[in-house]
Amino acid sequence: MKIPKPTIKRLALYYRCLNRYREEGVNFVSSKDIAERLNLKPSQVRKDLSYFGEFGKRGLGYNVVKLVDELARIIGVNKVWNVAIIGAGNLGTALANYPGLLKHKFKVVALFDNDREKVGKKIAGIPVFHVGDLIRLTQELNIEICVIAVPELAAQRVAEIAEEAGVKGIVNFSPVKLRTSIPVEDVDITLSFETLAYNILKANPEMLKLIEEQ
Amino acid sequence: MKIPKPTIKRLALYYRCLNRYREEGVNFVSSKDIAERLNLKPSQVRKDLSYFGEFGKRGLGYNVVKLVDELARIIGVNKVWNVAIIGAGNLGTALANYPGLLKHKFKVVALFDNDREKVGKKIAGIPVFHVGDLIRLTQELNIEICVIAVPELAAQRVAEIAEEAGVKGIVNFSPVKLRTSIPVEDVDITLSFETLAYNILKANPEMLKLIEEQ
Q1: Architecture of domain A5-75 in CATH?
Q2: With an 8 Å Cβ cutoff, are A194 and B93 in contact?
Q3: Highest mean pLDDT range out of A39-53, A112-126, A198-212, B36-50?
Q4: Theoretical Cys-Cys bridge with A32: which of A42, A97, B121, B199, CB 3.0 to 4.6 Å?
Q5: What is the pLDDT of residues B5-52, one digit of tens each?
Q6: Percentages helix, strand, coil for chain A, rounded to the nearest 5?
Q7: Given CB atoms, is B142 within the 8 Å cutoff of chain A?
Q8: What subcellular locations does the record give (chains A, B) (predicted)?
Q9: Integer Cα distance of A8 and A5 in angstroms
Q10: Domain A81-188 is classified in which CATH homologous superfamily?
């Protein structure tokens, strides 16, 4: 069965939302409760969750603990994923320092760079290796996910090395559309800026008028 | 009219996709063409664009140049937005160095930090000011968007200062749910990791089995 991409993106949101309900000690929630917290329609929530089987009971709602476990299993975060960051520049360093990743079961086990000055040092307690050792260390450290945080021109080459090394998937921060046969998730920060711009204009219709008069 | 959030997010994708068609010299595209490039259903594309009026002609498709201009106007990227980054650490530095922002009409005009060591220096050619000057400089530099790239504990306080300064919207990289009355767009990088994890498991069903046996 083909699950629509937006549904997959929302699963992670449901997982986060349900986890919060669990922390709050809530036992059952309705699709309406979930929808309200996430600013979605209840029918959307029911439809999304129905792709993965029937978790809800009419009148009672969803069993929070059961649904959290089920979502963790579906998303694949009932295990810890070993992550390597390629590129120990500002972005790679920011990611290595980001506590949210491990909290969500993504453990950065290594950084890689081609700058010999950086190799052998540690960033946020994580060792920096030479990118030439990626293939060897992918096996030794059981690296499953690579984060591409290198300059645009190096991105495709690094992706090919990662794939050859046996990495299972890539989180790509470069603006390059990577050609690989393993799953890639592109992180495009400018999309967030554009969504914000739209929401600002909606909240400030007088700005729209000024722009059009420019 | 209330436009669904996922539609708004997709508008930026349509804009990018259509821009590429324009660069390629394509004059007309169908909803099917757009849908294929973005891995969506053609019916979804038609529905999303219909919220903003009828741009397509039956049999001929969408006029690329007209649709790009229309989308730019709707999203609000037919003007350059002045952006300030609060927090000149690794993340703030990475963002200041990111050429994609200006390419998409978001111009970083200032960085702010509370570290006196950093104030007065430049990062990627952009001056670093003390966060205490945010209110004054928001007026002087016409700052419209603030990026919050400060540690979690400082995020809410910084958001309040930005709002008081008259900033129109916030791109928030902290994991804090900000309380403001101006629009906020949260950037949650772990969602990308979770989507990737799901896609890896789908591509490697044997992994799922191993996880369940753990």
Answers
A1: Orthogonal Bundle (1.10)
A2: no
A3: A112-126
A4: A42
A5: 788 888 888 998 898 899 899 999 999 999 988 888 899 999 998 887
A6: 50, 20, 30
A7: no
A8: Cytoplasm
A9: 5
A10: NAD(P)-binding Rossmann-like Domain (3.40.50.720)
